Amino acid sequence: MIRRPVEMSYQELNELLDRYLLEENLPATINYHADSINYNKKQRLRILLKALHRLLKAQQHYMKDMRKQLEELKKTGQIYKELKETGCLRQQRIYFYLAKIGLTDLIKHLGGAFDDDLFSKFTIATMLYDAAFDLHICRPYLKTFDHFIMEGEYITSNDPYLSVFQKNVDYINEKIGENNFKKFMKYVRIEHISQLMSIYQLSDKTITKENLLKITFTKGGISGLALVYLMTPDISHDEKQAVYELGAVMQLIDDIVDMNEDIKSGISTLPNQKLLDYENLKSLYHGTINNLIEKCHLNPDKPNTTLDMLCWFDDIILKKRYKKNIQKKTHKHNHIIKSTHP
Asked: Please, what are the domains in the chain?
């Protein structure tokens, strides 16, 4: 009898993930490093006004479309309350705004166009899928998602949670066409395997730095690639790989933002376990962005909201949040040593 991924051990999932990554010619590790980002930030006011305009457009779309779907989710009762109380709903709204501001220039440069409807459907479906891992009350849906993703088993349940999910997936299928949807679902399978592996982040007996690197990079990388692929299915492999690698390091940024929440939940991540120091993390982040500029042929002297936002994350998340947190922990540790060893 063939074991389903949801029933597999970490080692079995790891072997399956390696096979999928090999098929798509995608790396399990990211190794770019640089001292700085090769982007000449000019005309900041122009960029700021463009970002503000996109934020207002995102707000309009959110109020018109996404709130209607969230109203449907109220039928789930306690699940909706937990999605709200744990910040899942608010977090997806922030992701929608940031993607509208930051991804538009990149997707346009790659020959596509940012599609608000497509992204909002992707956002809602992703939130419901992620909740099956993050919230105990949603964990029973994990087997259904496993069947759907790995075997293409259509979800026909009247459960409001599953019906909202399937409705959004149906929209994506119809919007991008059958052939592109099949490719998209290959990326989703890789995401699913890495998400199942991430469950083991709750176990300090299984997770090593090498394991965490692989889970983090694959999970973030394939999520970013799947999203960009929806709006630019004709990009070259070099461009796909650069976007994948950017998504991988962006997962580290996300882990820094969620550092305190993950610690409370007992989830081990590279940042909250201090397995990557600030200088190495910054170097990796800068190198991967430079790789994106090179592989996607972006002009570093031309204003670009994607690059501007990535530089902004460098300032507000890496430098002001992660670096200060590292320094604070080190100072506290040194203070304890001095106190106990006069």
From this structure: 5-24+40-340 (1.10.600)
